[in-house]
Every structure is written in C-alpha cells, then in structure tokens.
Amino acid sequence: MSTAETADATPEIEVSETAAEQALDLLDGEGMDTDIAGLRLFVQQGGCAGLSYGMRFDGEPEPDDEVYEHHELRVFVDPASMNYIGGSQLDFEGGLQGAGFHVENPNVVSECGCGESFRT
Questions:
Q1: pLDDT by 10s per residue, the chain, length 120
Q2: CATH class of the domain comprising 14-119
Q3: Would you kindly state where each structural domain of the chain is located, as residue ranges?
Q4: 69 vs 58: CA distance, rounded Å
Q5: Of 8, 29, 89, 109, whose CB is crowded by the most CB atoms within 10 A?
Q6: Distance from C-alpha of 119 to C-alpha of 14, rounded to nearest angstrom
Q7: Distance CA 63, CA 45 (A)
C-alpha cells in the first residue's frame, strides 16, 4: 500500500519489493529508524542527456515532500523532482554488470548511451 501526504494528481512513485528490501537493509545498516527515515529519490542537472537521478537516505521528509510507502519503505520526493519522475518505478537489478537501483521512468524521451542520464 502507498500513501501520499499531499493530495495531487501527479502519478505516484512505485517501488518493487526487491528494491524496498535492499533499501531497508541499507537503512538498517546505517542505524536509521525505518519508521521515520526513508529513501530520497530526486532529479538533478547533469549527465550527457541533461538530467540524472539521485538517491540518498534522509532521516525524515521535508515539509513539501511527497511521501510514498511501499513494502514498508518510505520514499521522499521533492515537488520539483516529481515534475520529472511522477509515475516512475524504482527497482533493484543484479547481474554481471553490477547490482544497483534502477528507475523506470515513463516520462523519458531519450537517454544517454550509458543510461545514467535522461531528457523529458
């Protein structure tokens, strides 16, 4: 189940169970309270296509953040980033090329060759 702390027509962020488990393990390893703390997903300028994703752990959401909860993981997204990533799904992938979090963003019109940056 997910909850957004603000009523908005922007499509919400989804999180796969695998991504939630990985993030919760990392949060726990950092000694953070998973009932309050969460994963911040944001968009920043950079990369060869113009925008890139950023992630970090925050102890609590900012007052204007959208807050989603999936599989017991809280995800914080600031309003400016929601303009670019609303409707996205966060997943965790493993494989020969390395493991990591991946954002599947329906708003992307092009990505750079390495997949690290995008344009909407």
A1: 444 444 456 789 999 999 999 999 999 999 999 999 999 999 988 766 678 889 999 999 999 999 999 999 999 999 999 998 999 999 998 876 778 898 898 887 766 655 555 555
A2: mainly beta
A3: 14-119
A4: 14
A5: 89
A6: 20
A7: 23
